[in-house]
Amino acid sequence: MLTTTSVLNAYDVALENFDAAADALELDNDTREMIKYPERVLTVSVPVRMDDGHIHRFEAYRVQHSSVRGPAKGGIRYHPQVTLDEVKALATWMTWKCAVVNIPFGGAKGGVTCDPKHMSQHELERMTRRYTSAILPLIGPEQDIPAPDVYTNPQTMAWIMDTFSMTKGYAIPGVVTGKPISLGGSLGRNEATGRGVFYTIQSACEHLKTPLKGARVVVQGFGNAGSIAAQLLHEAGAKIIAVSDSRACILDHNGLNIPELIHMKELTGHVEGFPESEPIEPEELLALECDILVPAALENMIHAENAPKVHARIVAEAANGPVTPAADRIFERNNVFLIPDILCNAGGVTVSYFEWVQDESHLFWEAKDVYNRLERVMKTAFRDVLKIHLEKKVSMRIAANMLGISRVAEAVKIRGIYP
Fold first, then answer.
1. Given the residues 88, 109, 179, 265, the one annotated as active site
2. Is residue 393 among the annotated active site residues?
3. Which domains does the chain have, with CATH numbers?
């Protein structure tokens, strides 16, 4: 089970992180005004005929934070707790994330406030197509390119691509990324976020001279990113001692059998009751003695109340915004090395960019080419952020934001204002 604090607003956190980095950059007020806030915010009603015949109206959003460096890019999430401020925060982080890994995209995000776990496949399809129709004026391969996020997947992207293409009269695979391979998806996209997390953890271990082999790892959130990162860490010789999902937290001090756990998760949808593991409470999970903690769930999961209990040497943010600014300050005092989200989990958007390039060029790459390109991008970005961290003596979070914000600021200064 996962818990979060209800008092923190994700968008307030995003703006606070921006201000801290902008102050460190000594960014002028004019530039701040041009790059801090979203360019477009769309709220739509999505009426859907449910399987029992009644109409249910869902609230939904699409936010484009920046198109300064290229088309807006960002996922779409389906979750009961989706709010406009959450989507604005995620779109903001996407802008800095794309700039950190130096790909020519800006940030966007979308969301529908719904509970997909209690909807049929037909209801999800009807909702997705209606939502796509509602945001149609904003999206396109040169304009705004959605992707999967929480509780959306390649099938969701296929419905969006088909809906968009039907309005144009021909197939336009580049309108979304994270598609099925048969519709122009990229090899390596499904595991891209988790693989990027793994590459940045490798780099952090090298920097800290901490062996990855034998390292004790805790993963909070055993979804796509968390499970893939766990798999790769397991293959590298690390010991995954505890994981959690929305239903349970499990512990095995001898190390969980990650391939078998992933198989069970695929079959049952949860990790509860995994053989040879013991159940623990969510607060116990974060307090476990470990070398690496991977928060891979939702935002604001680690905050001022529970951050002092974290005993990891490295915290790798596979999720977006899982650590609050107050927790950041506690980690700094406790000498915890943080790999911030806009660096750590940027593997997903990086391979989304690779997919978009392949779609637009009609030429597709082998999986090993995708992995090699991703590793090069992630480790270069890590070195760029680490250099600022060491030279400017700022936290890794501020260093990553400084890198991303400075690249967007440079672009907006060169482009100027029209008219």
1. 109
2. no
3. 1-34+191-347+372-380+392-419 (3.40.50.720), 37-183 (3.40.50.10860)
